[in-house]
Write a structure and sequence with these properties.
Elements lengths: L31 H7 L7 H5 L4 H17 L5 H16 L10 E5 L5 H8 L3 E6 L2 H10 L6 E3 L11 E7 L8 H14 E12 L3 H11 L3 H4 L7 E2 L1 H10 L2 E6 L12 E8 L10
Parallel strand pairs: 1-2, 1-4, 2-3, 4-5, 5-6
Antiparallel strand pairs: 5-8, 7-8
Helix pairs in contact: 3-5
């Protein structure tokens, strides 16, 4: 038996919702970041998110659950939607004519905010996240997912393919660059057309990032003990592109007003030969 999770495609009621398999490691060695994300949304369920709310309200609540309650609370729906459009367009572009993306898989999908917007555009979705609570909320918000998995990014199964596979801002939470490279390889193998990685923390901006956070977050050093971010240089992506015969480019966040913008970059790659693939970050 393989370890992928297939959501029940039959109609469900509030009392009979799709369930997900648990791919989390059996070891007790859970990272501090994972503990933080496991506590997100502890007082919320999908019914509370959806009940009587507009698309804008739902996306803002899902983004709050995904960590923007403390780092992006002043950002509007229009800002998050602009980010979604950038990701969708980058994943779609690359051929002589705009490539139509019919399915996407997100590594580190959290509560499913971006996948929710993809589904609103009629695109089939799947995702993985190591937060049991957030993946539970995603399972109630999203519908007809081919896969919705609670597990580590590096354990993402690659047997089910999608037109595009992307990761929305979770690479900074990975433990090492080697881990990040393993995840990139899995994403590449899982995609038919394109892959994308958003909001990579720039190694050149690490000192500036720490200085900014120290000035703007009270007791930053003690509050974030053991909660380090992973900063990556462009060379890793360039090497990956060369090894897989990909063209590459770097882009930047379009989330106007996001405090993190000076410290992050996006990176895009596509295959030199058909079928085209890309990476954005």
């Amino acid at each position: 038996m393989n370890n992928r999770t297939i959501l029940d495609q039959r109609p469900t009621t509030n009392d009979q919702r799709p369930t997900t398999n648990d791919q989390r490691p059996t070891t007790n060695d859970v990272s501090l970041w994972q503990k933080v994300w496991n506590n997100k949304g502890a007082d919320t369920d999908a019914y509370q998110v959806l009940n009587g709310h507009s698309t804008e309200e739902i996306v803002l609540e899902l983004k709050r659950l995904d960590g923007f309650d403390s780092t992006g609370k002043d950002l509007s729906f229009e800002t998050f939607n602009r980010q979604y459009i950038q990701i969708r367009n980058e994943l779609s572009h690359g051929s002589i004519s705009q490539h139509i993306i019919n399915s996407v898989f997100e590594v580190g999908c959290g509560s499913g905010a971006l996948l929710y917007l993809f589904q609103k555009d009629g695109i089939k979705t799947g995702g993985i996240d190591y937060s049991e609570q957030l993946i539970k909320i995603a399972g109630g918000v999203l519908h007809d997912c081919a896969e919705l998995i609670c597990g580590e990014a590096v354990n993402t199964p690659s047997d089910i393919k999608y037109d595009a596979v992307f990761s929305g801002g979770v690479f900074p939470y990975f433990p090492s660059s080697g881990y990040a490279e393993r995840v990139m390889q899995i994403m590449y193998e899982k995609s038919r057309y394109s892959i994308g990685i958003t909001n990579v923390h720039d190694i050149k901006m690490k000192d500036a990032y720490i200085e900014y956070r120290t000035k703007t977050v009270e007791n930053y050093a003690s509050k974030y003990v053991g909660l380090d971010k992973l900063f990556l240089g462009r060379d890793m992506f360039i090497d990956f592109a060369e090894a897989h015969e990909l063209d590459i480019r770097f882009t930047y966040s379009v989330m106007t007003g996001y405090w993190n913008n000076p410290f992050i970059y996006n990176e895009a790659e596509k295959q030199k030969f058909l079928p085209l693939r890309r990476i954005i970050s």
